[in-house]
Amino acid sequence: MGRIKATTSFLLLQFLLLQFTKSQQGFKEPSAARTLKQEPHDSPEVHCSRERSRVAWQIIEDYLMPFVEEGGYEISTDCRLHPDNDLFRDQEKHKINLDVNEWRCGYCKKSFRAERFLDQHFDNRHYNLLNVSQNKCLADLCGALHCDFVINSKLHKAKCNPAAVARNRHLCESLANSCFPISKGPSASHLHELFLRQFCDAHTCSGKTTPFPRGGKKRANLLYMATSILILMLLPLFYLLYYLYQRDMKRETQVLRRLSQVGRKAKPS
Question: Where in the numbering of this chain does the C2H2-type domain appear (predicted)?
Fold first, then answer.
């Protein structure tokens, strides 16, 4: 009997240690995904920032693609701004954000408490899905696309480095030439001019021009959402008060009519 109790206690302790280890790794593993585990491998280091690549792609989506889609233009795969030339694009598309503190891997359906844990999971388990055979680091274009300005707009007011500005402007203009060749027709010519104004003109030490003067994708901000919710909450109250006001006015009118009729009847003949 004592041996059975000791065995049961040992198994219970092992189970608790296993659950604690999983919680420290930052993810919850569904039973359906257990069969999809990959063997650990010695993956070579990728010299490309996932975070800056993500910012660069967000800039492309917000401040360039609306104009490209509006013009019906198709970006060539030779253009470094094409989605196929983003090392992490396929993995980023397989991120599922279910809630503020829940992210899911689109490959194996594992769930994570934060995006950074999912990034680590991609690096460790799905490295083989990265195309590392070619130079496809979108973060290398951050200088031309003003990633630092988007991450921290205060950096735009820092001391200007003429050499860095000239280098970024040259890269920016080369992107305009390769992605939107003027020889491709009116649509490409229009986008070429827009790209120069939207991205390249701000590469100057004068400080007179800011990035993205043509605007971009409209996003609902928190103030707009809060105002909309407040209006929806106050609208029924407004109609209720209006109804009560109209009802009271109707009652007062009826009382006045009755008083008027009583006065007429009481008037001596």
Answer: 105-126
Question: Which secondary structure element, helix H or strand E, spans residue 96, and what is its range?
Answer: strand 95-99
pLDDT beneath 70, residues of the chain: 1-44, 133-135, 153-158, 218-226, 261-269
90 CB-side CA count, 13 A: 14
Confidence (pLDDT) at 18? 58
* 145: nearest Cα among 81, 87, 89: 81
* Strand partners of residue 105: 95
Radius of gyration of the chain (CA): 32
- Nearest-5° Cα angle at 124, 120 to 130: 95
**Given this model, what pLDDT does residue 12 score?**
59
Closest CA to 55 of 175, 119, 146, 120: 146
Using DSSP, state whether 102 is helix, strand or coil.
strand
Q: Pick from 43, 56, 54, 124: which is nearest to 93 by CA? A: 54
Closest C-alpha to 117, from 130, 103, 96: 103
Two tokens at 233? 């909450």
